[in-house]
Amino acid sequence: MTSTIILAAGTDGFTTTAVSSAGFAIGLALLGTEHYRWFRGSGGAAAPAGGKGKGKGPAPATAKSLDPKAMIAYWGGMLCGILMVACPAGFLGTVASFFRWGGNGIGGLAMSWLTGQSGTALAQGGAPTVDGLGAVLVTALFVTLILLRKAFPKGTRGKWWKGVFTASLLCITTGTAAVISAAVVGGTNDLAATILTTITKGSIV
Predict the structure, then answer these.
(1) Fewest CB within 10 angstroms: 16, 31, 61, 111, which?
(2) Distance (Å, whole) CA 96 – CA 168
(3) Could you read off the pLDDT tens digit of each residue along the chain, which spans 205 residues?
(4) What is the signed CA dihedral for 198, 139, 184, 29, rounded to 10 degrees?
(5) Could you tell me if 24 and 107 are in contact, meaning their C-beta atoms sit under 8 angstroms apart?
(6) Per the confidence metrics, is the pTM higher than 0.85?
């Protein structure tokens, strides 16, 4: 007997594990830390070097430009994390719920130790769920990532998982986070519809 793993639910589903204010704080900390490291690693200004030779003045400071390629794995992980939250009835949604549970626990301990306060329920964890066509694209994406996982360096895989964990904690049903989540999931559904319609019917909708 074969068992079926459902990757997506209907449009009215939401991830059941809510994000606490303490868990959300952990997500913000991860988001800020990764971008600060990116800025310091590729965007900081080099210190001026002084010359000892006669007639030589201090060398001008050179500013390095931010390299977006250094953050592709992290940002890609965040996008995948949002899509995982958008699949509440399947295995991906279960993993996202586990990350939320872990983040809420770690954040609760940190908040209690640092401030003496307890985390409160911030919002229902969720995003608009992927539809039947979007599920095709999400399935293809994650199967591809699984098959190619050995092709990525360990550091890249670590950044991707950090992005997934961050998005799982920041993807909520209110505020700016909800707008971003809706844009990602809605865009996935629309892109899937366009691709599948083009392939099967030869026309773009």
Answers:
(1) 61
(2) 6
(3) 433 333 333 334 445 578 888 999 999 999 999 999 998 876 444 444 454 545 555 555 455 667 888 899 999 999 999 999 888 888 998 998 899 999 999 999 999 999 988 888 876 555 677 888 889 999 999 999 999 999 999 999 999 999 999 999 988 766 677 788 888 888 898 898 888 888 887 655 5
(4) -160
(5) yes
(6) no
